[in-house]
Write a structure and sequence with these properties.
With about 220 residues, the chain is α/β, with parallel strands linked by helices. The chain is built from seven helices and nine strands. The protein has a three-stranded mixed sheet, with helices on one face. Strands 1-2 form a two-stranded parallel sheet. The protein has a two-stranded antiparallel sheet with strand order 3-4. Strand 6 and strand 7 form a beta hairpin. Helix 3 crosses helix 5. The N and C termini lie far apart (about 35 Å).
Length: about 220
């Protein structure tokens, strides 16, 4: 983007279980930011504004980092499953911009909340980092070398491909079905054009936590 003379670029993250800038340092993001002279923002300590999702399924209002609101968003999640949401990819990744990430688990539907949040913070580009993926669940330390990147301009479709690559049917991911219903994209594989390696060639059945069987209904 710098080479194409894009204006101000910000790398934002709001870590859920660690200090965000420590995570930036560990992941090598600080060096990238210094090389390209881009701004790093810890969204956990950003200014927050209350927003109201249009035609909400379950999320009436939520406080979101001001940096993210009105920005062109490129969502860059890791490829991994989730015990409650089934997968945690580009749509769920938007929870990093929230003042209270735990609030998304309150109410009738985490999947509905993810979908409503995506209607406010919809990624313009989604890039799933599957070079080293993770299996088990969202916080387990089980790296899987996949050597792939999944990218596109339809975040629902990108997440659907990500799910399929992990051996998970996209139609088993409730928030993807809801996102399609809300007009945010498509999750049906037959409607998605894949450029590059076919899914069948790179698919791997990811091991999933045994607790997923008991927690997925909470989504």
């Amino acid at each position: 983007m710098k080479e194409r003379k894009i204006g101000e670029i910000t790398i934002g993250e709001g870590s859920g279980f660690a200090d965000t800038f420590q995570a930036f340092e560990t992941a090598g993001v600080v060096k990238v930011a210094e090389r390209w002279n881009v701004k790093l923002v810890d969204l956990n300590i950003d200014e927050f504004i209350e927003v109201n999702p249009p035609n909400p399924m379950s999320l009436k209002k939520i406080k979101v980092a001001k940096t993210a609101v009105g920005s062109i968003i490129i969502s860059v999640p890791k490829l991994k499953p989730h015990r409650i949401a089934t997968v945690t990819l580009s749509l769920k990744n938007m929870m990093g911009a929230l003042a209270s990430k735990g609030s998304m688990h309150v109410g009738t539907s985490l999947s509905g909340n993810i979908t409503d949040l995506a209607s406010i913070l919809k990624p313009s580009i989604s890039v799933i980092d599957g070079i080293i993926a993770g299996e088990g669940h969202e916080t387990s330390e089980n790296p899987v070398e996949m050597n792939l990147v999944i990218a596109g301009t339809d975040p629902v479709a990108v997440d659907a491909i990500g799910a399929a690559v992990m051996g998970i049917s996209p139609t088993d991911v409730k928030h993807l079905l809801l996102a399609k219903k809300k007009g945010l994209g498509t999750c049906h594989l037959e409607q998605i054009a894949v450029i590059g390696e076919p899914i069948e060639k790179i698919r791997r059945k990811f091991h999933r936590s045994i607790t997923s069987k008991f927690l997925v209904h909470l989504g």
